[in-house]
Design goal:
Length: 249
């Protein structure tokens, strides 16, 4: 499971409806409240083997909320780092981002004084989002971009010049207008999914993002318009099945 949303009740209801009682791994792409505050609803009454997070503990109050919640449930916490590969049954994935933190610089030694050089400022939380390339049953490929902003999207391309085209793209940052055109062109998704609340005040998904994806040949679906969306692959090819208009923001 990737991210928990902002509302424990909503995510609990969703998982209950799907009959999910065991989750091998919960990935929290970053610590903004709209991605982690629903975590108690994920854990309630379910067996969760591990929770994995990004390394950037920002914003600190939300990172602490996750630590407290997971510790109370006695679930191990893992840190995602680019290059990690995992498999569970027919599902396998590679963590593409964020990169491991750089080693601290050596100290600068002045006469009688040892003073370390200052470390660079941490990146913006969105740009520390755990980003995953997933292959599911039937060979369907998915790229999950978290809330990456254009600077990190561009860095992702530089770090992975062989990034392939994918079947399904989870559009970055709820379909905001801040998308890197080269990344969208490179991955050329057949299906682009936008996770955004109904009547959200940000105007997500942005019309120009939807237009860019449409121009690239993707079918674009948004939870803001279509509600929950199931993606299936079989003898009839890739299909997206919307549940219907969302009932909650």
């Amino acid at each position: 499971m990737v991210d928990a949303g902002p509302d424990p009740r909503l995510v609990d209801d969703c998982l209950t409806e799907l009959g999910v009682s065991r989750i091998p791994l919960v990935v929290l792409t970053h610590f903004h409240a709209d991605h982690v505050r629903g975590l108690p609803g994920v854990l309630d009454g379910r067996q969760v083997a591990a929770v994995q997070t990004t390394g950037l503990q920002e914003p600190p109050e939300q990172a602490e909320f996750v630590r407290r919640t997971v510790a109370a449930a006695r679930i191990p916490v893992l840190r995602a780092v680019a290059g990690e590969r995992r498999r569970i049954g027919p599902l396998d994935w590679q963590v593409l981002w964020p990169p491991p933190p750089p080693p601290p610089p050596p100290p600068v030694v002045w006469p009688l004084v040892s003073m370390p050089l200052p470390l660079p400022l941490p990146p913006e939380p969105n740009d520390a989002s755990v980003t995953m390339l997933v292959r599911a049953a039937g060979g369907v490929s998915l790229l999950l971009l978290g809330d990456l902003e254009p600077p990190a999207q561009q860095a992702l391309l530089r770090a992975h010049p062989d990034l392939p085209a994918v079947d399904v793209l989870k559009v970055a940052h709820h379909g905001s207008a801040r998308q890197d055109a080269e990344l969208l062109e490179r991955v050329r998704p057949r299906l682009a999914l936008v996770s955004a609340g109904r009547d959200n005040s940000y105007g997500h998904p942005a019309p120009r993002t939807v237009a860019a994806l449409d121009d690239g040949g993707a079918a674009v679906l948004s939870t803001a318009e279509h509600g929950a969306i199931a993606v299936t692959a079989g003898e009839h090819g890739l299909r997206a099945v919307p549940r219907g208009p969302p009932t909650a923001p």
